[in-house]
Known about the structure:
By secondary structure, this protein is α/β, with parallel strands linked by helices. The protein has helices at residues 26-33, 93-107, 153-163, 175-182, 243-252, 267-274, 287-299, 304-308, 318-324, 346-362, 381-394; strands at 20-24, 38-40, 44-47, 56-60, 66-72, 78-85, 117-122, 131-136, 139-144, 168-173, 191-195, 217-221, 224-228, 257-261, 279-284, 310-315, 329-334, 364-374, 399-405, 422-428. The chain contains 11 helices and 20 strands.
Amino acid sequence: MKNSPRAHNATANQPVATRLRLRITAAAETAVRSGHPWVFSDSILDLNRAGQTGELAVIYDRKDRFLAVGLFDPGSPIRVRILHAGKPQTIDRAWWRARLEQALARRRDLFDAQTTGYRLIHGESDGWPGLVLDHYDTTLVLKLYTAAWLPRLDETLVLLKENVPCERVVLRLSRNIQSFAEERLQRRDGEIIFSEHAVPDQPSLGSFGAAGAGAPIVFLESGLRFEADVLRGQKTGFFLDQRENRREVETLARGRRVLNAFSFSGGFSVYAARGGAAAVTDLDISAHALAAAQRNFALNQNFPGVAACRHDTAQGDVFDWLAASAAKFDLVVLDPPSLAKRATEREGALRAYEWLNALGIARLAREGILVAGSCSAHVPAEDFFEVVRRAAMKSGRKFTELKTLRHPPDHPASFKEAEYLKVIYLKFSS
């Protein structure tokens, strides 16, 4: 991302002489100094001109000293996403390369050849605000959550291809920026596929390997094979952040009847089967997700545990199914989608979590284990853990808390709003 040495916030369509300068409230100054990566629109006191999407905005403090520099997004409530705070630095191609190397170095010793699916860049917590990069075998999936990256997309792709070995890159756009991107990029169903031969200055749809444009990617996780629908699947095609919890479930599953609710493509179930589960049931409202779960089971028939495990699927609303069912299970996994999309939904989400876990506990046999998860960033971990414990106490059954788990190492959380994942394990003795 090469910029003029005279003005490190210049962009391709902004003269270097007119640097975008901002001043922000005292509270926002304090937050930026403490490492928070966002400046909201209502925190901006003044700016010297109208900023353009994706240009670098330089923030000065009340004493007219450099405070930080970040990506400007005039269409977002998060008006500036901080790249660097402290002493001034030149944001050029070498700076971006060093920032990428830092993210890659954090993962260098985390995975061996038995795991080829993992996150390489985790947004703000890796210094790439509003951008994530996931690795699936020989495919990279780049997902953008702010339009500020669109003017820098070509340079970003070149940087990735120069430093991260891959055969192809798939671009995914969050819904909030797809309409904006329509004006700049060729699209298909909301995704843009860049093949290894894509022309950097003319983004275009490229070939997606011999298997065809719609074929899922097959990757390894802990030696197991899974599909990732990198074009249309949730997130970037798979829930990579639950890897450690899937491994934990494998250690608990031997001889147990397992219910995997909100199963998506059956990740927890395949691990449980390899761990010796007697039977697993995938429960999801999506027929497409359940079909993917069946394919993932088929991909792993080389493991004796998977081959021997009875695999059932059930389609329906999880709350309704749990309330109506009389079935008993020895291990119940409850991993719902976010129940609080915004802060105002927090209290309702907590009530829903308590009700959901009460339903799950009712389906547990004696000596059963509950694995309860939440991916709602607006629900703090301790609040979530407390409602699960409360549901357990209200059941009248004796239980022991085995452990709680949070973010895996390739999904670091460096500020409060980034802390979304939490899972609690309870074992019932009656």
